[in-house]
Structure of Phosphoglycerate dehydrogenase:
Amino acid sequence: MKALVLENIHPTAVDVLRSRGYEVELRSGALPEDELVESLDGVQLLGIRSNTTVTERVLKSAPDLQAIGCFCIGTNQVDLVAAAERGVGVFNAPYSNTRSVVELVIGEIIALARRLPEKTQRMHDGVWDKSARGSHEVRGRTLGIVGYGNIGTQLSNVAEALGMRVVFYDKADRPAHGNARRMASLGELLETADVVSLHVDGRPGNAGLFGAAEFAAMKPRALFINASRGMVVDYDSLRSHVLSGHIAGAAVDVFPVEPKAQGEAFESVLRGLDNVILTPHVGGSTQEAQEEIGRFVAEKLAGFTLQGSTALSVNLPQVLTPALDGEHRLGFLHHNVPGVLANLNAVFAEAGDNVIGQHLSTRDHLGYVVTDASEPLSAAAVDELRRSEHCVWLRTW
């Protein structure tokens, strides 16, 4: 089997896949759609980060593709519905780089509060500006976290350890950590927080979440941080509020349009502003995080293609399969309609095959059942199941 791995994914991922018997082709950068279509011929696994977009057209042109590994948190760069319809499993790393993002945000909060970006720039320019004007401790300040998921909650814990007060807003009903307080609305959070940090996902409904009205509602001289998604924020409005002095400083790690390859020119209306930290989408890019992401996602891909496990798939029904130990396994992804499981078991019964274990899960319009049996089904029985009108794919191990 062949894997195509793009965007400088950590070598640990390559080592894991090769140890499982995959032939791995490496590309250093992201691929545009036409080139990606050409490159997926005969490829079963695709490994990407955030700069490669997998559209429905790409999926249609890749009949051999079985799974996509997003070696990052986000999966909005993949058409998840189109992938599910074709039985292509999509896996990501929702936890592996959480700490790295949190540490970057904490560092930015302190740097912005102390106005370090402009201080260090003046030193490089040969200007000695020894002044405490505009510099503050973060202890006792209020951090407002928008999006209280894996990253938001861990940021909450670390910020409290620094002596900050924490408030948060999330549309989902999430429990507060420590002394953090839930805000009833985004507006209430903006009125309260000295620092606002965004940690929302890339779903379409979050596009344009933070614009002119939200910046205007923030406390005067508050700080703003976005390490979530570039399309969430109107950066023209952020620029205006920084220039006016209403926003005292900002740190931005993600942008609506980002260069596709290392060394390409970067353009932004935020360039050149005092007390604004710009980083090239490196929130989760530490050696520790990238190594863990590489291992985690590669193991999920191998588990799916070699043993049928869909645990932590973001688009297929989730079934955690036991390790294979002499039994014969059949994985059956199908349309979620009544009678499919009964028909499957009738085929096993008619073949006189003893079922050792069976695991079933459904998700939206799809169902996935993994059956372990003492003997392999005959080729004729397998073909009968594959011809079923409800079959998306059938695989045996």
Notes: The chain has 13 helices and 16 strands. The first helix runs from residue 11 to 19. The mean pLDDT is 96. The radius of gyration is 25 Å.
